[in-house]
Amino acid sequence: MKCLSGSIKNAVQLFKQKQISPLEVCEAALRRQETISRLNAYIPNAVVETTKSEALLSSQRYEKGTPLSPLDGIPIALKDNFCTAGIRTTCGSNMLKNYVPIFSATVAERLQKAGTILMGKTNLDEFAMGSGTVDSIFGPVKNIHRSGLCYKFIDTSGEAIHTSAMKPTGGLEKDDFYITGGSSGGSAVAVAAASAFLATGSDTGGSVRNPASFCGVVGLKPSYGVVPRHGLISLVNSMDVPGLFARTVDDVAAMLAVISGLDPKDSTSVPSNMKTFELPESPSIEGLVVGIPKEYHRPGMSSEIIDVWTMIADLLENKGAKVREVSLPHTKYSIVCYSILNPCEVASNFTRYTGVEYGQRMNSSQSMEAMYALTRSQGLNNVVRSRILAGNYFLLEENKEKYFKQALKVRRLICQDFNKVWSEKVNLLLTPVTLSASLRYSEFIKYDNRSQTATQDICTQSANMAGLPAVSIPISLNDEGLPLALQLMAPMGKDVEMLSAAKWIEQQVGYPKLRVIDT
Amino acid sequence: MRIVHRKLFTVKTSKFYSTVNIKPALYRNVWRPVIGLEVHAQILSASKLFSRVCAKYGAPPNTQVGIFEAAHPGTLPVLNKRCVEAAINTALALQAQVNKVSRFDRKHYFYPDLPAGYQITQKDCPIASNGRINFIVSNPASNPKIYHHSVRLVQLQLEEDSGKSIHDAEFNRVLVDLNRAGLPLMELVFAPELHDGEEAAALVKELSLILSKLGTCSCKMEEGALRVDANISVHKESEPLGERTEVKNLNSIRSLVRAINYEIERQVDILEGSGMVVNETRRFDNVSGKTIKMRDKDTIHDYRFMPEPNLPPLWLYDSSEPNYIPSGSLDINVVRKDMKELPEETRQRLMKEYGISLENAMILVNDNSLTKYFTAVMAQNQRQARLVCNLLLNNLLGIINSLDISIENCPMAASSFGEVVDLLQNGLILHAIALKIIHAVCVDGDSRTPTEIVLANNWSKFSDELIDGIIEQVIKNNFAVVEKYRRGKKKVFKTLMGKAVAATESRADMQKVNDILKNKLDEE
């Protein structure tokens, strides 16, 4: 079904014209989920029972001409760290393998009220700790690119790009595959493969933008507080934001309008001016000042990434933007700072996983402490446990000043770098998202989770430190047929302005659509 | 050692607290105990500190628990406005500085009654700091003098309560009740400026009165609504402070006094035996009356404090300040304007308005209902305060206490009691009759008005003429004795007086009977 991989606007128009019903689209999306099942994007058996009946209700609303919102009937997916009442929410962990929340995340609730159809919960690194989506109890998620699944690229005019002449789409040898990036890899694939129009992710250090870039979709990390966190299972509270995946910038904007806004259940949420907005049909970049932070030119950055970065910078300049080099001198400390702050909050947040109130509980007849120890060693993987250990170490009375408090100071310096740049009238920053295109799984797992995160989050992390909005935009395909992407960052609260510029870039680059051929 | 005696009832309001701190005598003439209190007061609130879950006391186990209290993943704290107001109110009453910015911290420890693994509290930036509590120390049993004392309030912080866990040794299991988890607490940290158990008790009593009056805490210690930790050390006056111990969770005034006094004695014994006091946490055992060391496991903690990331700083503003900017969650001045009369102010007012003694004022103010009862009686007919106090505090309270009835539920309404006062004050009845009326109403349930009771029982006081006639009769009937008297045997006056009293049926003023009899005897 062609509609499935099109835009939301197109789908809703078809719903309204009664050319196609939400139920039909839902069924097509379920078939697509089946087609891509070996990519492991969805949590097993996570197809929501009520999916079809919800789609039917949506169909009836269109029959009556009373859709709930501009997203009514649109298939969506939620990363499996968003609580969903009555639906298992696992975080990809043994600890919550059978955890069924009695409440829904605000984001989930808002999407449901808007009439969207929940297709399932998506796979992730355990508790969203990772940058590859390879550390889940349900196994790694595979990138659809070069996965061996049948797909083709369509250009903006709707013509199929002749793959033999252009980009390879064939699978890799010996069961190897390209990683999706992470930790929201399941959501990125779900959207890239058009088993859903939209998906949520969570972005603490780049967990939305990183997989968006590897999977060729748009990934938005909104300003901190714009999208409420209630019901998003905490990783690092002061940096976590619910993120958004879609195939186009317009679709991301439509979703942002629905899920943003003050939530009385989240004291860190802020009122939003994004409830009703539409990006301009033809955005302009005239007079926009775009900064190119020199520190993002990292050793080990692939030449193809540098090429697209240069290309878009040139394009912006040629079309009327002012492009200038800027400096964010403390960015280089972002990762080391993160590697302290993240474990500290993790150590604190994860004390609750004891198996007493909910979740997996291992029984030990010896003592309460023995029960805790057994539960936590079996319920949480090595990555999680090592961060807990490190965090508790950093927070000890004798270490706190040296590590935790020092890291907080560095975090402030990182924020101040950005503020200085914004005060120099810079509107946006243009940077890479990752050092390279996606990596082969066999390559990726040569390094442990910690070193991978430290490498992969380099360009994305500081936006979380400062709470800034950032978006990953697919630019082109490399010679391997893998997506290359760039990132825009903007001052706090300037999400809409940033998305406008992202849409302009999207229109300029004409990134090809990936169309899965259902078997 | 300087002991300052002072007649406090004559002290004027403005100078009331100019008293020098009086320290009780040194222990065994050498040792100076130093005590500091930390008080946990549960805030009276319909819901919990960070959620909308009901905060009712005494509900069946685990029925007052929401997703936040059970620390479900993804749940976030939302600060209860009522609790912030209560904290501001309390802080203002204790003359503390309400901080314009305060912050919340996480205090970590693993325990099943703390499901999140941390308590949200305020460590470095509490909602209020630097206050003071003034109170009167009065304990006739151990110390004849009444004196004022004043202790600095170091800080007042908002924090959540934990649940309760019960260790079932028989079945080797731990049972958890989370009803209390997340209940709002004010922790009040007082400076170590107390010197014995009585002073500590006086502080806690005054604090209870203040909080009850404000309505910020029920102060029911038996329900755990007010819990006290005491830090105790002893030292020689010329030497630096001694090593302290902490006695936790004292849940009655009595155990507070006993625990402190026991601990002072224990420490002095150790020091006099050349031992060392160890800095440790102890608990008080009510049965043995001793403090007992808690297991190290329960006491040695690195709480790994960190800022609570899910709560932004709490901003307050004060519209009474010039050039204030109304940015923040609450206006301190709104709370200030709503401030109730504090117990000490009430005492001062009663003393000033009615000229009653400090002792009486203290008794009246110790019970809000009693204050109300007293002022209701005093509101009419220009009743004499001394008379009212005497009849109310010595007689009425005595009777209803023996019946185990509180003044709130007193069978005798204030208006009725006032009528008794009027009868007495106007010389229509005698004091003994007043007692009989109170007894009739409170004990026998007589529903008539005091006047009706007096009339029905023929209890009214004899007039002077009546007394005159009765005495005439007594003289006539006892002529022989009268003769003896008149011959100079003055001793027999007593006999005649006895006859006269018997004849007046206790309804005449004895002084009057005495005077008239004497006059008549001496006349001729």
Automatic annotation (TrEMBL), chain A:
Gene3D superfamilies: Amidase signature (AS) domain. It is found in: Mitochondrion. InterPro entries: Amidase, Amidase_CS, Amidase_dom, AS_sf, GatA. Residues 37-143, 178-499 form the Amidase domain. Coiled coil: none annotated. GO terms for molecular function: ATP binding; glutaminyl-tRNA synthase (glutamine-hydrolyzing) activity. It catalyses: L-glutamyl-tRNA(Gln) + L-glutamine + ATP + H2O = L-glutaminyl-tRNA(Gln) + L-glutamate + ADP + phosphate + H(+). The active site is at 79 (charge relay system), 183 (charge relay system), 207 (acyl-ester intermediate). One of its GO terms (cellular component) is mitochondrion. Its main location: mitochondrion. The keyword Protein biosynthesis applies. Its EC number is 6.3.5.7. It holds the Pfam family Amidase. It comes from the Eukaryota. One of its GO terms (biological process) is glutaminyl-tRNAGln biosynthesis via transamidation. Keywords: ATP-binding, Ligase, Mitochondrion, Nucleotide-binding, Protein biosynthesis. Allows the formation of correctly charged Gln-tRNA(Gln) through the transamidation of misacylated Glu-tRNA(Gln) in the mitochondria. The reaction takes place in the presence of glutamine and ATP through an activated gamma-phospho-Glu-tRNA(Gln). Subunit of the heterotrimeric GatCAB amidotransferase (AdT) complex, composed of A, B and C subunits. Belongs to the amidase family. GatA subfamily. This is Glutamyl-tRNA(Gln) amidotransferase subunit A, mitochondrial. It comes from Halocaridina rubra.
UniProtKB/TrEMBL annotation, chain B:
Pfam families: GatB_N, GatB_Yqey. Residues 372-521 form the Asn/Gln amidotransferase domain. One of its GO terms (molecular function) is ATP binding. It is found in: Mitochondrion. The keyword Nucleotide-binding applies. Its main location: mitochondrion. InterPro entries: Asn/Gln-tRNA_amidoTrfase_suB/E, Asn/Gln-tRNA_Trfase_suB/E_cat, Asn/Gln_amidotransferase, Asn/Gln_tRNA_amidoTrase-B-like, GatB, GatB_C_1, GatB_Yqey_C_2, Gln_synth/guanido_kin_cat_dom. GO terms for cellular component: glutamyl-tRNA(Gln) amidotransferase complex; mitochondrion. Gene3D superfamilies: 1.10.10.410, GatB domain, N-terminal subdomain (1.10.150.380). Subunit of the heterotrimeric GatCAB amidotransferase (AdT) complex, composed of A, B and C subunits. Belongs to the GatB/GatE family. GatB subfamily. This is Glutamyl-tRNA(Gln) amidotransferase subunit B, mitochondrial.
